[in-house]
Here is the input.
Amino acid sequence: MMKYAKAIYATLIVVFLLSPLLVILPLAFTSSAFLTYPIPAFSTRWFEELVINSVWSRAIVNSLIIALATTALATVLGTLAALGLRSQDLGMKSQIRTLFLLPMVVPAVVLGVGMQALFVRLGFNSTYWSVIIAHTVVAMPFVVISVSGALTGIDRRVERAAESLGAPPWKVFSLVTLPLAMPGVLSGGALAFATSLDEVVLTLFVAGPNQRTLARQMFSTLRENISPAIASAAFIIIVGTVVIAAVLMLSRRKKA
Amino acid sequence: MKGSPRLRALILIAPLLFFLGLFFVWPLITVITQSVSDPAVSRVLPRTADLIGDWDGEGAPSAEIQAAFRADIVGATDDQAVGDVTRRLNSSKSGFRSLMGKTVTAVRENPDVDLAEVDKRWADPAFWKAIQDNASPYTDSFLLAAVDMERDSAGSVVAMKEGTSANFTILMRTLWTSALVMLCCLVIGLPYAMIAASVTGWKRAVLLGAVLLPLWTSLLVRTAAWMIILQDNGIINQVLTGLGITSGPLALIYNRFGVVLAMTHVLLPFMVLPIYSVLITVPGNLMSAAASLGAHPIRAFLRVLLPLSLRGVISGALLVFMTSIGYYITPALLGGAGDQMISSVIAEYATRSANWSMAAAIGLILLVLTLALYAVYNRLSRDPIQAR
Here is the structure.
């Protein structure tokens, strides 16, 4: 009796958790002008809309530029910092670590207000750089966490062995440490990319009309008129995320 | 080339520290300074602002202060800034508008004119008092206004007149909505985490996957999906009217229900995962041990499993509450005018009315609240992290 109750409950919650994703995906292929069921006919018109309509295609290009730059910047900064945090000799380690994770905690609206005020004063608000920097601040913690996780799994004796055999530090790093930490670096980078792709709030504050991203465009479309282009954009984002996750899983499995 | 390991660690960390100092800490400091700074008067009347603090408020101020005031007016060439000062002073003491207009013209003609001769109001200390009150480049008025308070003419803090400002109401609404979301997450998430921890194999994989998959999908996509499900001709309303349960569509969106439902969905993983990670460390045979000793399942749950999962519950609850008080996107898209949370107010002040000081003041309150909750959370969850 208890067992059935448990099974039913768990199933209900799984449905609750997954239904939004299952509902939005098929609507990407609707031929209707409305985001409603039943779907009258299968069509790719809304994907075409994303390509043809310059507002959407521009937003997609902007998102890619910004997300790629953010990923590069966040991955480099985060990986270096995670390597540094590994040292036993560093003072105030837990405080520094907390500081590195704080951007995930501070409400985006508050950070956005401060960034806009500061960036306007420094004279580079509403540029690609302002958006990339803002995204890097909130994407970087994911890199730090994921690289730190990978680094704790490394047996330090391997590096010591390389050192004792006469390898200079940069060679130990590039031939031993980095390859071992690579899965962490890759998944950190993927998370940074996904964070940038999905970022709306900071973008509202620091981007100008020329840096309108896909997420920003989806947000304003949702506010004004719900068009099925939303579902198509969502489809692209979900498929993109799944592909990245799958590639990462496969690359990790090959290593293991 | 080798250097000390400590120096090497510092060099590795330095770029990120520098980056965060510049683009994370500095913006937050900007929020703090912006929320308490009020340079309108002191910027236009710098010499007066410097000296008038010493004035005792009895009779007209000294000739030195009056000379500084005349010099400031001669030096103030930006008419718009002078207009701002006049407006500010006029709101402290009515009559300043005509007085300033008259005085500026007179002083610009003759910088050494006697102010009391230009207008006898300058002999009245009340007008100088208004300048003195506004001369400081710092103010607490924005922070007070953020919680619907103000200073009366005597300078003591009082509540604003009812109906003038809704900031406090919205702050309370934010806390209430967040508490509701936290409660929903707890009620749904605790049993779910317990079931997930009690099963094994593919069942556990499915239960955990269902929590992780939404976490990996875009927040915007999930919010959009809820808009599609809950709208007037969405799936739920179609089913309800189709089965004849309701005659017309139920209002599921643009109200509190929609906000709480979608936020519960979005934040549920933050409740389930901490509880789950605590529960899997609990030996599986504890419950059967309790049962074999004759405890009723409910009693065994209350006395054994619940206390053991308590730390996960508290971590999860804090995490959900802390995240939801700063939420912007979901309430903005799924809520009606009466469901907006504090973040929307901040965004409104900043983007629509360009009132940066108010945006920063309310933002500062939200920031302090969030950081306080995070400090508690960090303390609670520190031990297991260090043990790892």
